[in-house]
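Let us work through a complete example step by step.
Step 1: write down the sequence.
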Amino acid sequence: MLELTDNAKKAILRFVETADAPIGGLRISVVDGGCSGLQYAMSLEPEPKDGDSVVDCGPTKIYVEPSSIPVLTGVTVDFVESLEGSGFTFTNPNATKSCACGKSFAAGC
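Step 2: predict the structure and record it as tokens.
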């Protein structure tokens, strides 16, 4: 369904290890918003919700809700650190356009 780079896996593990509560995995979803119509949302969760797909990415589990699956299929998630800052990036073959800031996109699903 989706793929995490080694840098993304390491970053997620750092966040999980420093969380105040037990974490079972990372929820990645697509929500309405941003200047192109859709944006990615991420949150650490104790367990998957009913109906979620669970993607096993080594020591990291990714939870994806059913409505986000068509837009996240084939996505590569990376974690980039640069002089401008650090954060997760998404390479999405389903995106038909994205905004200049790179935080939102449109999809033809």
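Step 3: interpret the result. The chain has a mean pLDDT of 87.
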